[in-house]
Amino acid sequence: MSTVNTPSAANSTSPASSPSPGASGPRTPGRFTSLGPVGLVLAGGISVQFGGALAVTLMPRAGALGVVTLRLVAAAVVLLLVCRPRLRGHSRADWGTVIVFGITMGAMNGLFYEAVDRIPLGPAVTLEVLGPLALSVLTSRRALNALWAGLALAGVFLLGGGGFGNLDPIGVAFALGAGAMWAAYIVFSARTGRRFPQADGLALAMAVAALLFLPLGIAEAGTRLLNPTTVALGSAVALLSSVLPYTLELLALRRLPASTFAVLMSLEPAIAATAGFLILGQSLNPTEAAAIALVIAASIGAVRTQIGRGKAALPAEGQ
Predict the structure, then answer these.
(1) d(C-alpha 202, C-alpha 292), whole Å
(2) 78 exposed, middle or buried (CB, 10 Å; 0-12, 13-18, 19+)?
(3) Using CA atoms, how far apart are residues 71 and 65, in angstroms rounded to an integer?
(4) In the chain, what is the straight-line distance between the N-terminal and C-terminal CA atoms, in Å?
(5) What is the pTM of this model?
(6) For 27-82, how does the pLDDT look when each residue is reduced to its tens digit (9 = 90+)?
(7) What DSSP character marks residue 227?
């Protein structure tokens, strides 16, 4: 994987980072950006994990691929209507980036839902987060960030009970594959955010992912996808697991380095455990609580390191 370092908003001067004069229609709400990049990531994580817990309850109705299809199609419709992205004026490289982003997004969703159809939500997210953690180490240029990633990794394995031997190996493989796609998602989300204004690239990528998965969902679920209750629940999953978190993360990646963003993703198992407790009735034991403390400490350390680095650079920038 190539090394990617997402520039901060203060240093970004790319024209693609600003809305095009010819763009029209409503954009992503400005109040979201007032949360700050860290707040955006946390809000996105809470939304996606509670959406994931809701998706588990929907799987008996439509199957894993059916749920993914409902989620992607509903999310694509919402984003296309809200963003109304321009189809003209983009280079071949722009389209190549957004298509790969869409393929990555679809694969990440498909693999993850196949995983949670076979293993519990907490272990699935725990395994999946190894992808962003690996990305954090690969993209970081500071030894201290590797330390935070290592601390988060220790928490991830502790949350998994020190091993995953009692889990369905196919489910484990799907979760690890989803983690690899999550790392790729981080990279291509950042690239798409630099090439397209606001959430336009996200809307187009979501449409690509939905078109790719539609035949798979129809093959597995058939007419069950048309059940009104199933459609309503699938739309709720789409809003919680796709529209809100992907939009918030895309905005955050414009102002956070990929390495810091990736370590923040280590909070996902903790959020998933909370969602599992509130929605699926899964409880936490002392070992899992200690694991959550480790990943939170790692995430706070990564953010403080990045903030300290930014403050240290301010005097030089002002000269």
Answers:
(1) 31
(2) middle
(3) 10
(4) 37
(5) 0.70
(6) 444 444 445 777 888 888 888 878 888 888 888 888 889 888 988 998 899 889 98
(7) -
